[in-house]
Specification:
By secondary structure, the protein is of the alpha+beta class. The chain has 14 helices and ten strands. The protein has three domains: about 5-120, 2-Layer Sandwich (Beta-Lactamase), CATH 3.30.450; about 140-280, Reverse transcriptase/Diguanylate cyclase domain (Alpha-Beta Plaits), CATH 3.30.70.270; about 285-370, PucR C-terminal helix-turn-helix domain (Arc Repressor Mutant, subunit A). Pfam families: Diacid_rec (PF05651), GGDEF_2 (PF17853), HTH_30 (PF13556).
């Protein structure tokens, strides 16, 4: 518990405050921190009896004459969780420094406990991050599910509670970008004792959120990030519990992160349920997709207004082939939408109400969009 860096920091700070040299020893009486740094590493013999008896002891100039590495002053036991972990010594005339003894003891113990708590928290966060990375990368042919479940329970996470894996991608305007501010922002806004957070790749952070809180938490985070000038894109995977389902959620979130900006370029939050069609079509071999697009859309692809016609067909289908709703989404008059649809039918030399044509055009338009 008494690391040398921590002990030295505490000794320096208290020495500066009280104006008397403070030294800290470990359980064996070796000095691990001192306002007089030349004493670090020396044996402080007076500490041996203090550790054994668990009592504060004062030592005059005559008392320390035969004690190795000891100056006149007061030596106080440091007790954490009822265990003596070392001592703190104050150099000076005993009658002058004794009044500081209890205060210095309590302050040192508080600082040590706080450092231990922070250290434990950091250790748990790192273990949680490693666990989440392994879940995201898990494969049926790989690691044991039971082992990951045990590790999760040890860290206080019940993986049988439904969660969604969320990926947060920092959108850097300067090329490379620094992941650390993104990790801190995600951990602060979305991380807690109930959530797992991990840096998966540069500028991509994963977090496992309880399923029932995901949408609202992500919306709040994006708003707060925007207010701080941090540009992010968020992808939400499917709900799942257990290692296998959470791994699927992570894979869905990755697909949403890739496909969402293509299908909905103006959105900041992309849910996998909004791009299921794109996800299914993305696994079709590229040459098969290319043949289908050219077979269905060749006359349209050659038209200079093809991007506008494609967005028209997609909006029409996304609105259940309702021309009024589709026109509202596109911010055009309904007659303009109907004109475009009639023009598409004419270019294809097919009837607009031909059975199955609208769906086929929608699918091939989505495939063409993916090809971008």
């Amino acid at each position: 518990m008494l690391g040398q860096a921590l002990a030295q920091q505490i000794a320096n700070e208290i020495t500066d405050v009280i104006g008397h040299n403070v030294l800290i020893t470990d359980q064996t009486g070796i000095v691990v921190g001192s306002g007089d740094e030349s004493r670090v590493g020396q044996f402080h013999e007076a500490s041996v009896e203090v550790i054994r008896s668990r009592r504060t002891m004062a030592h005059s100039a005559e008392d320390v004459r035969d004690l190795v590495g000891t100056l006149p002053g007061v030596t106080v036991p440091l007790i954490i969780d009822d265990e003596v972990v070392g001592t703190v010594g104050l150099s000076g005339a005993p009658q002058e420094v004794e009044r500081f003894g209890l205060v210095v003891k309590r302050q040192t113990e508080i600082l040590m406990q706080e450092a231990a708590r922070i250290g434990l928290q950091v250790t748990q966060e790192r273990a949680g991050a490693e666990l989440l990375r392994e879940i995201c990368e898990w494969h049926h042919a790989g690691g044991e599910k039971a082992q990951l479940l045990r590790r999760a329970r040890t860290l206080g996470h019940d993986l049988n509670v439904p969660r969604r894996i969320v990926l947060v991608q920092g959108v850097s305007t300067a090329g490379e970008g620094d992941s650390e501010p993104l990790v801190r922002a995600v951990s602060k806004a979305l991380g807690s004792e109930r959530r797992l957070v991990a840096l998966l790749a540069r500028m991509v952070v994963a977090v496992a959120l309880l399923s029932d809180e995901t949408a609202q938490r992500c919306a709040d985070f994006v708003r707060e990030a925007d207010e701080r000038g941090l540009r992010v894109r968020v992808a939400i995977g499917s709900a799942g519990k257990g290692v296998a389902e959470l791994n699927l959620s992570a894979r869905d979130a990755f697909d949403a992160l890739q496909l969402g900006p293509i299908a909905h370029p103006h959105n900041t939050i992309h849910q996998i349920d909004d791009v299921r069609l794109q996800q299914a079509l993305a696994v079709v071999p590229i040459d098969s997709r290319t043949r289908l697009v050219h077979a269905m859309l060749a006359p349209l692809l050659a038209d200079r207004d093809w991007p506008t016609l494609r967005s028209t067909l997609i909006a029409w289908a996304d609105n259940a082939f309702n021309t009024t709703r589709a026109a509202n989404q596109l911010h055009v008059h309904r007659n303009t939408l109907i004109y475009r649809l009639d023009r598409i039918a004419k270019l294809l030399d097919r009837k607009r109400d031909e059975p199955g044509l609208a769906v086929a055009l929608y699918v091939t338009c989505v495939i063409d969009e993916l090809g971008r």
